[in-house]
Amino acid sequence: MYPPNGPTFKGDVSWYTVNLDLPPSKRWTDIITDKKNEVSSYVTVSSLMVDTLPYPFNEEIRGIASVSGVPLGEVVLFNIFYEVFTVCTSLVAEDVNGNLIHARNLDFGLFMGWDLKNRSWIITEKLKPLVVNIDFRRNNQTVFKSTNFAGYVGMLTGIHPHSFTLTMNERFSLDGGYIGILEWILGKRDGMWMSFLTRSVLENATSYESAKALLSDTKLLAPAYFILGGNQPGQACIITRSRTHSINPLQLDVKNGRWYVLETNYDHWKEPLFLDDRRTPAMKCMNQTTQAVSFDTTVYDVLSTKPVLNKLTTYTTLMEVVVLTFYNFFQIFVNVIDIFFYIYFCNYINVQKYAQWNNLIINTTGAS
């Protein structure tokens, strides 16, 4: 329920600044100094590819390694991990006044170790302390804002003020990120790392249309979904990418009843995997709300609904580009039995809370 509270809400994401006027190796010093222990705790394996990565990302990575004390190769691996392992839900909706709302849950850590004691994915819990909001500035002016992991120089979620919003979801494909990374290692480097592309787009594109062209046409190392929102009614789309080109883009079309676009990790023209169907519950919730959608009454609740919110969720983001709204929250998936215990505890203290938490059960367990 919005404003965020209750057993799923775990707090706001802290803010930092990255000064793009500094040399690349110095830009992340403040963040990594503050998050040094968390970065060291997360990164546990090695890779030695930094010399092959494009500028300025390679120099930023060198600076992060220097400040954190984590071996350079391990920081490189931390930065390429997301080419193959992110699982997400993103949506852009247009309300009755023509305002665009862009939101996402970022899920990460599937099959990367299960903590039996805490009933959670190990990597997911390691990542949460690394989540930060970053204001990227040049000449003392904001260029773009992002929610990110400390030490990760690519972008998964961001807003270019008053121009466009952007999120990236992984696309599962036989021609996947592993192949592109292998080709890169073997010397074929004509493709772009997808999170470096989103970083470049957020930093350099100046409009929805220019961002859309770059995301549609740039050759990639890995397939992806780019979910893009603009600053005018009707400006929202899902760009489904192979490594070489865009496939069957889906555009917002309010006149024909498509007032939102929603992407998880499956092609929008195909049925999602039945074991991982976050799309159907999310769309059911959106359809029940109709176009009277807003941050405080709808979108946050949709992203807080099981299974859209799950044990892999690391953060939730809400964005409106025109008014430059950029909210980010930590959430935690709570099992039904945990929720009932929480309700009992709240009722024991204050019986007046019953209706509020009863509504929480409905939102969190699938109905909307």
UniProtKB/TrEMBL annotation:
A GO MF label: N-acylsphingosine amidohydrolase activity
Which residues act catalytically here?
88
GO annotation terms (biological process) = fatty acid metabolic process; sphingolipid metabolic process
Q: Where in the cell is it found?
A: Lysosome; Secreted
Mention any one GO cellular component term assigned to this protein in its UniProt record: lysosome
Judged by the first EC level, this protein's enzyme class is hydrolase
Q: CDD domains of this UniProt entry? A: Ntn_AC_NAAA
Q: Which reaction does it catalyse?
A: an N-acylsphing-4-enine + H2O = sphing-4-enine + a fatty acid
> What is the top-level taxon of the source organism?
Eukaryota
Q: Which residue ranges run through the membrane?
A: 326-345
For this protein, the Enzyme Commission number is: 3.5.1.23
Q: Where is the Acid ceramidase N-terminal domain?
A: 12-51
Limits of the Choloylglycine hydrolase/NAAA C-terminal domain: 88-282
Cite the annotated pathway: Sphingolipid metabolism; Lipid metabolism; sphingolipid metabolism
Q: Say where the protein is mainly found.
A: other
Q: Report whether Disulfide bond shows up as a keyword of the record.
A: yes
**Keywords (A to Z) from UniProt:** Disulfide bond, Glycoprotein, Hydrolase, Lipid metabolism, Lysosome, Membrane, Secreted, Signal, Sphingolipid metabolism, Transmembrane, Transmembrane helix
Q: Which InterPro entries match?
A: Acid_ceramidase-like, Acid_ceramidase_N, CBAH/NAAA_C
Family in the record: Belongs to the acid ceramidase family.
* Protein name stated in the entry: Acid ceramidase
